[in-house]
Amino acid sequence: MSKFEDKLAELGITLPEAPAPAANYVPFVQSGNLLYVSGQISKGEDGLITGKLGADMDTEAGAAAARVCAIALLAQVKAACDGDLDRLKRVVRLTGFVNSTPDFTEQPQVINGASDLMAEALGDVGKHARAAVSAASLPLGVAVEIDGIFELA
């Protein structure tokens, strides 16, 4: 197990198998040392995490959904690294999309669910640039979708 997976285990997290793409795209593309991971939707062990922030879901629940997206992102990174997560040198950027009402303004706090996990699990390697934006709707009605760019060794 990698040092990052050891830290995830301390947090009570075991990385699942990387989710398969849901349409006509690949889950990740590597160009040079950069790995571009396709958007990961909020799907936990019990299925899709759906809802609209500002209507039927609060910020705390949205942050929990974003955390699930971060776990899926790391699962994709591990798959891209042939199972060796220690090849991860840096989380470069995350882009978070929040299914929210027009008057909801706490997208950054929602996406903190993912950013906080990256920092907790990866330390300085997990500190990244990011965007957190509202979306009128997301695929399958999910609450959050996040994509990422990662640097690999």
UniProtKB/TrEMBL annotation:
A Pfam match: YjgF_endoribonc
Domain Endoribonuclease L-PSP/chorismate mutase-like: 6-141
InterPro entries: Endoribo_LPSP/chorism_mut-like, RutC-like_sf
Coiled coil regions in record: none
Protein name: RidA family protein
Annotated source species: Roseovarius spongiae
Taxonomic lineage of the native organism: Bacteria, Pseudomonadati, Pseudomonadota, Alphaproteobacteria, Rhodobacterales
